[in-house]
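Reviewers of the previous submission asked for a worked example of the structure-prediction workflow described in the proposal, so we include one complete record here. The input consisted solely of the amino acid sequence. No template or homolog information was supplied to the procedure at any stage.
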Amino acid sequence: MGAAALPILIFTGFWGVVGIVLPFIIPKGPDRGVQQLVLMMTAATCYLFWLCCYMAQMNPLVGPKLNQHTILIMAREWGNLIQ
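From that input alone, the workflow returned the following structure tokens.
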């Protein structure tokens, strides 16, 4: 199982719009710079969090805990029994 290109493109585009396009749309005001920074930091951190969670599913560090009997049955059924 590998990474699908469509979810990566969709989420990259979404957070790119939030972090790059929306800060230019903020109306002028005394705290415009803070609002722009909040949008950029939110987009960056949310995108990185999503990307790490998405990538962690491709090679999980924790797998199912199976007893030896179940493993032997699976190996026999799948045809890769080691003698």
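Residues 31 and 61 are 44 Å apart (CA to CA). We consider this example representative of the routine output the project will generate in years two and three.
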